[in-house]
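Reopening this one. Same input as before:
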Amino acid sequence: MNLTKRIGLLVVLLAGLAAALPAAGEKTDVNKLPPFYKKWLTEDVVYIISPKEKDVFLQLTTDRERDLFIDAFWKARNPNPGSPTNAAKDEHYRRIDYANKTFDRGHLSGGWRSEMGRVYIILGEPKQILKYENESQLYPIVIWFYEGMGEYNLPNAFNVVFFKEYGAGDYKLYSPVRDGPQKLMPNYSGDMTDTLAAYSALADIETEVAEISLTLIPNDYFIGMAPSIPSDILIGKSIPAAAYEKVKDDYADKLLKYKDIIEVEYTANYISSDALVQVTRDAAGRAFVHYLVEPSKLSIEENSGVYRTVLDVNGIVSDASGRMVYQFDRSIPVEFGESQFLKVKDRPFSFEDAFPLIEGDWKLNILWKNTLSKEFTSVEAALKVPPARSLTLSAPLLANRVIRKPEFLSQVKPFTTGDTQLIVSPRNDFAVKDTMSVFLQVGGAGPDLVAAGTLAFAIAREGQPFKTFSRPLSAYADRARIVEDIPLADFTPAYYVLTVSLLDGTKTEVISGKTQFFVSLNADIPRPWLLYAPLPPAGDPYFTSVLGMQYLRSGDLANARVFLEKAYRARPGSVEFALDFCGVLFASKDYDGLKAVALPFYRDQKKSEFAQCLGETSQALGDYAQAIAYYKDFLASFGTNLNVLNAIGDCYLKVGDVAQAVAAWKKSLELNPKQPDIEKKVEASKGPLKEGSPREG
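Same output, byte for byte:
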């Protein structure tokens, strides 16, 4: 990657990271929304938008963002995402139209506002309708019967009752608890607090209405003829929530978080995913972050029997203050022949990757994009890398398969340590016929703990002990690659918790870790096909360089210099390693050392990438004319660059060429108008100057 691209990407990602953290609670008042969006929120989707979706919509600040949200809102509900039409959207507006025509009752407010309209828009057409509208002993009553809606977290069968209170006005939603059978009879003269007496009186008039008056749920059990509380929960909570019960509304959070980072065409195309992130150490003691992303779908294009797409993966590791210490980009082409595609098309898909990381507490943000379908998903995780020599017990990593090959020792592969590759699932799901392999690393254990310590494994099911066993720590020849195999044949389908504890010689717990797993009813669990970006061999200086740059960005110049110099010495002809080494030399103010590295590349190999760091060195040493020459060469080779334009403007001002200084700064402001310091410099340079006397920048 050339220097221009490196700087540009760094600026974009840093700006994106800041934009990805919107201030909570900054919401637009509904009444201040533009008319179109106010109507959409308060009329069109008022009954079907989830609380999270509404909250996010009110945090959007532009019409473009609201349009993207509306597009994503309907995509999240589309039963057939590949279709050019959206059946869910079409059905919703059909229901609104039907409600307005059927339940309006002549009112100007629109039938969608009525209680019948609201229920119809949420639930659709009832299976059966019963009407008691001309009974002298009953107020007008309409009963809608629904069934087969368990997927929306509703009873398998239930009734919704509407009645005209006191026989007049619009139909009102009936509540067994709030209203009771006594409210359904115009001539009832008994005690209005005696539900049993009212029920008996209603049963003499219409038995079916009497039954429904106490419970809306057939076969619902209720005590002492008291009105059914589950019925009130049904109409008060369950039916309103059914409108978005099956909608995965996490897309709304992702749209809000990444709307300023990802390209417009991706914004409304968030897809859900499962992910797993694990930190382990390799044989050399370096910490590696292993991660996998399993998107809910992978769209692939077919052309003349070739199936292909390209995946872009962008990652940022930052500290608690948001300062970026590492960023990476992967572009992975995916291509199959027809026979290969047929083998994987019905299987899940998993992308895996790994990268080294220095010790500390970090935040990981990953954007995964399918460039063909313009879909994206994301992963966010907290990372903790303890000091290398501290006592550690890694979180248990559960594998459904383990592959051991000697050649792995010289490779860096995701979820691989030494000769052991783990095939894992982010859901930790297993079939009864599986053998679950538990992978652990124990680090920093002293001789006494190794000799007398014990690893204790405890598995609990529903909070109760299920299986325990232990091994002496000394039984493991390689404590960086501990694998325990647990056959699951005697496990019943359920959720389990595995706790692994390191005990000292007195059986006192020193440190522990735990994880959950699930044993499924399914005899076979579909396992994904794996894809990962090729990584250099374990001894490649690339990893040393990555760690060095992480130290540099975290402010640890001493370690940064050690690692970046080591990478440069291992591959002295590498432009990238030399540039990185120059970066730490400049930060350390070792200008002579920087020139010793950079000048051979610049003069002998004509590598203009080094013009910027040489210009910065000359500027720091006060040789402004030489700095200008370097900066001009950089701009001629790579085009406009924000930092270089600002720096060359400062140098021009130092040598008294105010016009050139202002021209450079104005060009910089064209690239990024939000630079108040540069604006001040331009304004300050407008005053009269003495000849030969440069104005300070």
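So the earlier flakiness isn't reproducible anymore. For the record, The CA atoms of residues 448 and 505 lie 8 Å apart.
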